[in-house]
Amino acid sequence: MKTHHGRATGAFCLFLMLIGAAGCSHFGHYPVNAPLERYEPGYGYLARNMGPEGSSEELLLILSFSGGGTRAAAFSYGVLEELRATQVALDGRKRRLVDEVDMISAVSGGSFTAACFGLFGERIFEDYEGRFLKKNVQGDLTSGAFLHPVNWFRLSSPFFDRSDLAAEYYDKNVFDGKTFGDMLRRRGPMVLINATDMSLGMRFTFSQNLFDAICSDVSKFTLARACAASSAVPGVLTPITLINYAGRCGFVLPPEFEAFSPGYRMREMRGNTTLVLDPKEKQYFHLIDGGVADNLGLRAIEETIDAVGNAWTSLRLMGREKVRKVVFIVVNAETKIESSWNRTAIIPPLAAMISSYSSIARYNLETRALLQESSARWTDQVRTGSCPPGTWTC
After folding, report:
1. Rounded to whole angstroms, how far apart are CA atoms 358 and 244?
2. 10 Å Cβ neighbour count for 217?
3. Could you report the per-residue pLDDT of 16-49, keeping only the tens digit for each?
4. What is the average pLDDT across 199-216?
5. Distance, CA of 385 to CA of 316 (rounded, Å)
6. d(Cα 192, Cα 343) in Å, to the nearest integer?
7. Mean pLDDT (the chain, rounded)
8. What gap in Å lies between CA 223 and CA 206, rounded to an integer?
9. What gap in Å lies between CA 111 and CA 65, rounded to an integer?
């Protein structure tokens, strides 16, 4: 009896030692984003380096996938299915609209569908439902990750938390360990995954444009961690943290940022950029759900155009000077606002808060209105840029 008890005690002590060793090793720290050794304009995961092969040069088809949890992921997937089933005549031949998608800007739940489509292409229609949409992801995370004894010690570290565990699950079960570099090599549509910096409240988009500024290489960043950041709902999940290496790779701001802008939004965006370039003041990014800054994913496109000056300049930087038609399809998974809480003094529970999180209707409405108001200005900019005054060959 004593021998059995001694063995059990020894085994338990060994177990604790192994757990302790795991907690003190890399198990207790989130993966660090890779630094960029040298800034090279045009390098990496940029829109000019992406684009489906054989698509029409005259059509620019842009999708935006909103936040809204699994509902948003399923809704955006349904839109992709419909685009696959829809054929149009382009350049004298019939093409499926899904093959013409040039860019997807996505937030939170929509980011999973966007990333899987950008990474796997046609394969998404074979296994995405089984691997993600119809899977009990929350149950798997609870039982397989959060309740695993080893992870109790990992979660005790100040450098590892719930979103890091979730990212590991997505990496293994959804994205097969792939990175933005893998998506770049496939050269499908440009997928913009959007998160929010917790302290600045600014939109953080995973593309080499922003990663150049912080001297990091997004091609080595996993899609799982990007989606975990984009869907890190405050109060439910924790931020995903990145290191700011700004100033180490020779990055310089493009001349467009030096010009004075009378617009408040542009001045604010440039102010945030100036702060990002100061690694002493801004050493880390703690990223939360992209819906905090923009739940539709549209502002990433609008602000990118404003940042480079105008729509024509943006098309030139993408290598799309031949574009004649620009089509936006906004996939908005917001639900009807629950009004019953307006008539009760009871404090709404966490579940009610989460359910209403993706239905920030007024802000979504303003974002759509901004897109509509910008379209006429962008049309004039493209017309003037592609056919300057005095040109007779346009």
Report:
1. 29
2. 22
3. 444 444 444 446 899 999 999 999 999 999 999 9
4. 93
5. 10
6. 40
7. 85
8. 9
9. 7
